[in-house]
User: Which sequence fits this backbone?
């Protein structure tokens, strides 16, 4: 290959529905080209976070350069850019795709097209990418390649006749994938002599070298010593190293138009190199940055509090460390009457929230209490002041509210047709507005709904799965803010409002939701000497009530010489359990209570 | 008083192990029992200086089933204990109805036993079977008759909380009262996962039901002239169990025999529960020196089991470093109507007795 001849470069991503084999295919391709010896290969090298591996999804992007000897005798350089596999990370996915000329669309030959497949294809389409379908898991007995090819052609509208039929797991026909990439995905066509124009599509944090952005060079050349400027952040840096991922980091002299790699420039925080940022030279800048830059906007919020007070500082340290690598995570200190000092954190979505929470508990060994997740509401008072509210405690008094708006998303749901009724019922229960429905094939339908985000942040996906025996798939994107009849519902324990339990809920659903919460709390709060009323209230209005009956007997029957040590040990153990409880007046509430109000099923 | 001592002697042998029992009890051959008595003699010898310098006021032979010993074994045991019986104010032996004979009662009385504790548990044949007891209700009457020939003071044990909706426990109490004991202990059934009973009961009694059953029994006992002086213990005036009181008062007690526990001064220690080890003379399994806080917790945990309560001034005097905490605690418990303080006496209310575990746990949580 002639050096920097762009016609021998291919930049592409792999897109797929979860579990359709995206990461396995990436592994096979890396292995095939010998970028890593198989001894170095862990299963699915691109997913290198433990949590990702456990959940089988890619959260943080990885990228790799593959050198492939093609059938035409030429050596090609492939840049495989990984994309996160979940709806919460749509913006990150779109920027990764923007770094490519094409995408491999992996479809499971037995499962067929799923909601996420379509969502990802839309994204790739928007970026003008060439989409190359690949049928995976072709060796499974349940594979039905002919039908799935039809589906791809009908539903997605791309030709799939000559799609490679592979098994990423066994490595069957992997070579055909490389050949299809060469044949169908266009080579980059940047101008090396034009001013530098490079896109940041990911970044990660290195303890010694700071934030390291992953970039795609569209025009120009970047090398060590260059003075660069981040066009959105308006920050300038001096480049100290550029390099490639193989997937280990290899420094090179320069990155030229068409290349994908990384740069090191002593950037202190990942916040300074947001995904979507355009990099150019300080002394010869491009006139216009690349389109599509957005600040990562948290959609879902919750309060995180230490289960034990002394962890307050530790939580901040941990959040700061996670933030180094996660520009989308936001947090600020917050005080709750019930829970004391904690942090209000913002996330891209519920999965993002769960991942951060788990990492805090697992990697930093923190014991956390999370409040009910909330979305951002737009509240306008009669005086005409509009504010964004995500903590129910910050709502103005109901009488002052002139307009209360909530975020609406458009969701697409794909289900086998026997479950359409169930899904419609579910969407109805979650205040969904039906848009349309089409049949994908004999067996499956695709439904579109507008749904309030606050109806899906709790457990919509679980509910969908349970109503479709696991066959339903789901994806959504933000639509707009809409006026809604929302109210703040408080929970009172022993007549005292516990602010951490307050939620914003649609008026029509307040009674059933209130009932569910007080029932849950009755089950998890231990009985105490006095009966404890648990109430749900809107303003002064009690809408649901349960009572925890009084505990009347709690004493060891026999306590003689031999029982003393045993009893003491038992008490010590109970004391530990008690420590984990929160005291509200004379009532002790276990941590579990805070979790139990998050989950709710439709009756 | 400072110098007195109670002695507990454990006889771990049973004819058959009851289905609910979690004590150190085993079914053994006769020759093993003989060897056990020899090991016991050696263990007592090891405590010679302690036993000789203290005034031994109570002796309690418990089990297991002490009445399970043969006549000659019984005599051997009593001979062993005879040196310590001179100044006794109470000498109790535990017995099961099926193994009480006139001869054994005769020996007990000859050696000074003045109180017999009989495990009656229930008068219902069905429940006796479920519990794994081998005596019949009729045998209890006979055993009490035999004991009363020589020894007047009798305790009878009753188990309640057998199953929700069970009514037999009240009939069992009637049966007990008809035998005119001076002392009655009523124990809530404790179901241990690892004991056969756990698999035999389909439904367990909840704390509300347990509360109801206990207080029905209590009212009936009080109507019959008994007074409750401890969580589970009732007696006619003057017949409170002196040896058992030592545990609740944290008075020194030496326990000898398999698995027996002792408290001497600040030290709690207990014997092995493995017979071979015990027979080999390897008696002690664990020993700990109690911290001041341990003692404080024990004072509350044990002392407040008794209606007479504990001495508030002594408590403060002995734990000056915790006096603020103690006051804060008492104030709160009094406000909750669980404890009452009158003069220097801190005692549990009826609510406090019923919720004693919670009451003590509240103190622990302050430490």
Assistant:
């Amino acid at each position: 290959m002639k050096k920097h001849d762009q016609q021998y470069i291919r930049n592409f991503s792999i897109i797929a529905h979860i579990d359709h084999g995206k990461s396995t295919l990436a592994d096979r391709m890396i292995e095939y080209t010998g970028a890593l010896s198989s001894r170095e290969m862990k299963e699915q090298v691109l997913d290198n976070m433990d949590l990702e591996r456990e959940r089988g999804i890619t959260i943080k992007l990885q990228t790799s350069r593959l050198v492939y000897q093609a059938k035409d005798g030429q050596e090609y350089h492939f840049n495989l850019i990984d994309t996160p596999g979940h709806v919460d990370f749509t913006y990150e996915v779109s920027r990764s795709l923007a770094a490519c000329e094409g995408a491999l669309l992996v479809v499971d030959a037995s499962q067929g097209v799923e909601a996420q497949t379509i969502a990802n294809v839309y994204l790739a389409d928007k970026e003008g990418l060439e989409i190359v379908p690949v049928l995976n898991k072709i060796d499974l007995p349940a594979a039905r390649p002919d039908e799935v090819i039809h589906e791809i052609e009908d539903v997605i509208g791309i030709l799939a006749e000559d799609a490679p039929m592979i098994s990423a797991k066994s490595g069957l026909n992997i070579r055909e994938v490389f050949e299809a990439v060469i044949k169908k995905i266009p080579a980059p066509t940047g101008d090396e002599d034009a001013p530098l124009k490079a896109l940041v599509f990911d970044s990660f944090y290195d303890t010694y070298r700071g934030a390291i952005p992953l970039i795609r060079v569209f025009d120009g050349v970047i090398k060590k010593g260059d003075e660069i400027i981040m066009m959105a952040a308006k920050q300038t840096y001096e480049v100290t190293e550029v390099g490639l991922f193989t997937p280990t980091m290899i420094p090179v002299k320069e990155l030229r138009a068409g290349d994908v790699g990384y740069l090191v420039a002593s950037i202190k925080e990942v916040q300074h190199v947001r995904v979507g940022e355009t990099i150019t030279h300080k002394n010869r800048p491009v006139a216009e940055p690349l389109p599509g830059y957005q600040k990562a906007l948290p959609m879902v919020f919750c309060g995180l509090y230490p289960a034990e007070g002394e962890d307050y500082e530790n939580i901040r340290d941990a959040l700061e460390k996670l933030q180094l690598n996660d520009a989308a995570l936001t947090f600020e200190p917050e005080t709750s009457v019930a829970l004391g000092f904690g942090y209000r954190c913002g996330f891209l979505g519920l999965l993002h929230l769960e991942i951060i929470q788990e990492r805090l508990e697992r990697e930093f060994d923190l014991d956390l209490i999370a409040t009910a997740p909330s979305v951002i509401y737009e509240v306008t008072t009669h005086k005409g002041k509009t504010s964004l509210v995500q903590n129910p405690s910050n709502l103005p008094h109901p009488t002052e509210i002139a307009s209360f708006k909530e975020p609406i998303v458009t969701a697409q749901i794909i289900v086998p047709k026997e479950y359409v009724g169930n899904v419609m019922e579910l969407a109805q229960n979650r205040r969904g507005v039906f848009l349309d429905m089409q049949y994908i094939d004999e067996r499956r339908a695709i439904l579109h709904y507008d749904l309030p985000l606050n109806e899906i942040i709790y457990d919509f996906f679980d509910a969908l799965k349970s109503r479709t025996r696991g066959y339903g798939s789901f994806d959504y994107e933000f639509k707009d803010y809409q006026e809604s009849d929302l109210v703040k519902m408080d929970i009172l324990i022993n007549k005292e409002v516990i602010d951490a339990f307050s939620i914003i809920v649609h008026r029509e659903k307040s009674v059933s939701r209130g009932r569910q919460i007080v029932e849950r709390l009755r089950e998890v709060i231990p009985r105490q000497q006095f009966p404890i009323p648990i109430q749900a209230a809107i303003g002064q209005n009690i809408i649901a009530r349960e009572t925890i009956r009084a505990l009347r007997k709690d004493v060891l029957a026999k306590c003689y010489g031999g029982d003393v040590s045993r009893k003491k040990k038992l008490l010590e153990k109970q004391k530990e359990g008690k420590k984990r409880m929160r005291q509200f007046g004379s009532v002790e509430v276990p941590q579990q209570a805070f979790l139990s109000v998050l989950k709710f099923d439709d009756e | 008083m400072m110098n007195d001592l109670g002695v507990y002697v454990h006889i771990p042998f049973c004819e058959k192990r009851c289905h609910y029992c979690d004590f150190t009890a085993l079914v053994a051959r006769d020759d093993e029992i003989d060897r056990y008595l020899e090991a016991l003699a050696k263990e007592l010898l090891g405590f010679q200086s302690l036993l000789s310098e203290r005034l031994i006021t109570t002796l309690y032979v418990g089990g297991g089933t002490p009445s399970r010993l043969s006549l000659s074994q019984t005599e051997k045991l009593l001979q062993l204990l005879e040196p310590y019986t001179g100044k006794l104010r109470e000498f109790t032996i535990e017995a099961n109805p099926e193994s009480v004979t006139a001869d054994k009662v005769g020996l007990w009385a000859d050696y000074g036993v003045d109180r017999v504790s009989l495990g009656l548990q229930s008068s219902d044949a069905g429940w006796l079977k479920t519990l794994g007891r081998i005596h019949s209700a009729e045998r209890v009457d006979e055993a009490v008759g035999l004991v009363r020939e020589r020894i007047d003071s009798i305790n009878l044990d009753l188990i309640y909380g057998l199953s929700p909706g069970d009514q037999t426990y009240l009939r069992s109490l009637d049966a007990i009262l008809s035998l005119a004991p001076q002392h009655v202990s009523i124990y809530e059934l404790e179901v241990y996962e690892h004991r056969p009973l756990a698999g035999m009961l389909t439904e367990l009694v909840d704390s509300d039901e347990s509360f109801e059953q206990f207080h029905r029994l209590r009212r009936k006992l009080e109507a019959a002239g008994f007074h409750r002086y401890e969580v589970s213990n009732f007696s006619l005036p003057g017949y409170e169990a002196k040896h058992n009181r030592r545990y609740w008062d944290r008075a020194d007690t030496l326990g000898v025999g398999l698995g027996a526990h002792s408290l001497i001064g600040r030290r709690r220690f207990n014997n092995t529960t493995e017979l071979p080890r015990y027979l080999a003379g390897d008696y002690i399994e664990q020993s700990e020196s109690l911290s001041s806080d341990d003692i404080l917790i024990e004072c509350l945990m044990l002392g407040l089991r008794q209606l007479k309560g504990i001495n508030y001034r002594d408590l403060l005097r002995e734990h000056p470093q915790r006096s603020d905490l103690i006051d804060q605690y008492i104030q709160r418990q009094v406000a909750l109507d669980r404890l009452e303080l009158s003069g220097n006496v801190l005692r549990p209310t009826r609510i406090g007795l019923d919720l004693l575990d919670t009451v003590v746990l509240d103190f622990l949580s302050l430490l």
